[in-house]
Amino acid sequence: MRQLATPLAVTIAAGLVAGAGTAQPPTPLEAAGWHHAAWHGMASAQFRPLPEGGVLVEALGQGSFIWRRVPGRAECLSWRWRVEHGPPPTDLTRRGGDDRALSVGVGFAGWPPHATLWQRSQHALAQAAAGGHPLPRSVLIFVWGGTGREPSPFPSPYMAGLGQVRVLRPADTPRGRWFEERVDLAALWRASFGGEPPMLQELVIGTDADDTGSRVEARVEAIRFGPCR
Length: 229
Hints:
This protein is mostly beta strands.
């Protein structure tokens, strides 16, 4: 995975390519409520909308992400996903070479309770690049990829400690099978950052295959926010 001008912007600078002021008709992805964003210096993957808010992700040595607004309180998030083709295991804890088939990220509107001045300054630099799009101030990231030996959670090496990553499915998870996921966002935010979770802000789905030049074909479907029962 490559970085933008600031590490934080790699995952959460969703406003960089969010087509403001265009008179063109919306793309099918935009009509489904998604915005497609690119990482600097990396060719973009392909995202196609599926029923019920899902997406098909295809890439060949490419990487990018899509996002949409999800206001509300931190409750439970559920989805199902499958990977037909994806990168081999890579170490997701370090910069460079950290490819993954899929990531599902949830951005929050508030800071971790112990956010430092340096972290806030890094966020401010990313926000300046993103313009009028308010960026999340903390992020939980769930990944299909990696070796499976990464700590849970571990800080994203690109996000100045404001993003915490959990590998749910390592890269060697069987291909061509659906897997159901359900995560308690409030509990995981507390475990990751401490204190009470702020309001939700964005949902982000991404892929990254540029370092290994891998083919990606994957799906995310049945995305739901709701009470934890």
